[in-house]
Amino acid sequence: MVIYGSGRHTVPFLNYIAKSTGKEKPNMCFIPTASGEDEQYIASFYDVCSQIDVTPHVLSVWINSYDQKESFEEIISRMDAIIVGGGNTLNMLAIWKAQGIDIALKKAYENGVVMGGGSAGSLCWFNGGTTDSRPKELSIVGGMAFIDKSHCPHYNSETSRRPLYFENIKTGKLSDGYACDDRSAIHFINGEVHTSVSLNEENHSYYVYLKDGEIVEELIPSTVIL
């Protein structure tokens, strides 16, 4: 699992995920459900993939059985890496549940497929976090809990994220968890932190938890990748 703070596609992060599969030319699938399958977002995925050694795929949920003869599980099971895009986390998870995509992703994860993504594409893998998926204000959303911790994306770019994350952990609305600045990522192996990588020295990842009634924000040392 490789998660990062922003949903924007970047060559370094997708290349890092590709190499994490251990395959020479991995099948990498983008799932853009959260953005309503935005065409420019999909185009940017293909553009990044053209610069790295992968075979790109896009999984669409807006299909019909006359045109698509493979199940979502069959498509997902053929992939070496899954990249989930940013957007509306709540709507994405609702669609996935209705289509059984959440179950297919869980099976693939347990079979060693590398999962990743940013924003909604990072939040979905955890047990919960704050989201802008509802009107008016940031609110809490439950995730699929592949990693049984909470998560906060956009840690350095949206000023309300950090204090709200602290408050929700302090009041017990969220468990301890991991936060990522927009251009920083955490690589988990078997649910445990393996390493952190960043696109520059100004972006970081953190483990945030409660100790003796106070919030502790523990920096996870990272390596800059280009």
In words, what does this structure look like?
This is Peptidase E. Belongs to the peptidase S51 family. InterPro entries: Class_I_gatase-like, Peptidase_S51. GO terms for molecular function: serine-type peptidase activity. Keywords: Hydrolase, Protease, Serine protease. The chain is an alpha/beta fold and 226 residues long. It has one domain (2-224): Class I glutamine amidotransferase (GATase) domain (Rossmann fold, 3-Layer(aba) Sandwich). Helices cover 27% and strands 31% of the residues. It has seven helices and 14 strands. It has helices spanning 11-20, 39-49, 72-77, 89-99, 101-110, 120-123, 161-170; strands at residues 2-4, 27-31, 55-58, 81-84, 114-118, 126-131, 139-142, 147-152, 177-180, 184-189, 192-198, 205-211, 214-220, 222-224. An eight-stranded mixed sheet has the order 3-2-4-5-1-10-11-14. Strands 7-6-8-9-12-13 form a six-stranded mixed sheet. The longest helix is centred in the first third of the chain and has 11 residues, at 39-49. It starts with a strand and ends with a strand. The mean pLDDT is 97.
Could you please say which CATH topology applies here?
Rossmann fold
Helix content: 25-40%
Beta-strand content: 25-35%
The CATH class is identified as Alpha Beta
Q: At CATH's second level, what is the architecture?
A: 3-Layer(aba) Sandwich
Computed structural class:
alpha/beta
> Stretches where pLDDT falls below 50 for ≥5 residues?
none
Biggest β-sheet strands, sense, barrel: 8 strands, mixed
Strands of the widest sheet, in order across it, are 3-2-4-5-1-10-11-14
Count of alpha/pi helices = 7
CATH superfamily membership, which one?
Class I glutamine amidotransferase (GATase) domain
Quaternary structure state of the chains depicted? single chain
Shape: globular
Structural domains: how many? 1
